[in-house]
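Bumping my old thread because nobody answered last time. Still need a sequence for this structure:
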């Protein structure tokens, strides 16, 4: 392994740590959300007094959690897709399959890039104009943190798709042990 390979391994290793960290943060957020929902149910049932802002927090949390976890889901091949046809092509025509896989992952990266391009102005607008969800005087939360999480999630997912594309094009496939 030369220094170039070592540097690539180092970067990929730490990128994977970032993806796992974002995924873990999303999982922790789910746990906190479940505590909040159950607390709201108890407050409604026993005290006839719901916790203000729970629906708004749930609404924003779902978006935040999805974008925190999408990069790691992509890395681990857990995105919803049907790849039976692709696996057949890859097995029967490995060279074509690699280019097909690279094209698919490059399209994924382009899609994430387009979301980023469309989301940056929305983040800036939400921050500059102090957009919020909720009702003034009862519960409000700023929108820009969720918009930032969307950008981060799309950025790491785009990077993961580019890593997949690179691997299809330039990394030799490993021989199967079977």
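Sorry it took so long. Here it is:
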């Amino acid at each position: 392994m030369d220094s170039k390979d070592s540097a690539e391994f180092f970067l990929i290793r730490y990128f994977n740590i970032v993806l796992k960290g974002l995924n873990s943060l999303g999982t922790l957020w789910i746990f906190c959300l479940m505590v909040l929902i159950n607390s709201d149910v108890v407050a409604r049932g026993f005290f006839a007094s719901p916790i203000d802002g729970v629906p708004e927090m749930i609404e924003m949390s779902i978006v935040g959690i999805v974008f925190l976890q999408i990069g790691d889901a992509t890395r681990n091949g857990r995105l919803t897709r049907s790849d039976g046809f692709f696996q057949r092509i890859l097995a029967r025509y490995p060279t074509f399959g690699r280019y097909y896989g690279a094209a698919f992952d490059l399209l994924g990266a382009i899609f994430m890039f387009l979301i980023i391009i469309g989301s940056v102005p929305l983040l800036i607008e939400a921050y500059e104009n102090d957009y919020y969800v909720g009702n003034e005087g009862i519960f409000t939360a700023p929108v820009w943190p969720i918009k930032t999480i969307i950008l981060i999630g799309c950025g790491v997912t785009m990077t993961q798709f580019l890593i997949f594309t690179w691997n299809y094009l330039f990394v030799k496939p490993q021989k199967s042990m079977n």
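The first helix runs from residue 3 to 47. Let me know if any region looks off to you.
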